[in-house]
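Give me the fold.
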Amino acid sequence: MSPFGHYRLQTNGVFPGTQLNLVTVSGPLELTGSGTIAEGGRLRFQGVARAAPGVDPAIKTQLTGLISLLGRRDGESAILNFGS
């Protein structure tokens, strides 16, 4: 299956303290989240990965393994938590 989707990562502010916002533009894999780049380049990011609403069941099944690799499972979604 290719591609997984198209995504937009927006930044706001200056380093340190740059704010990040991730949104899905299109595609079967929905990724959303936000975070910051702090002093020393430390990344903190929290978000969610899941199959987009209305995705074909066969594609949803194919995405299940990838979603599990991205973060801690929460039902059909995965919680993304990167950084400290």
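The chain has a mean pLDDT of 93.
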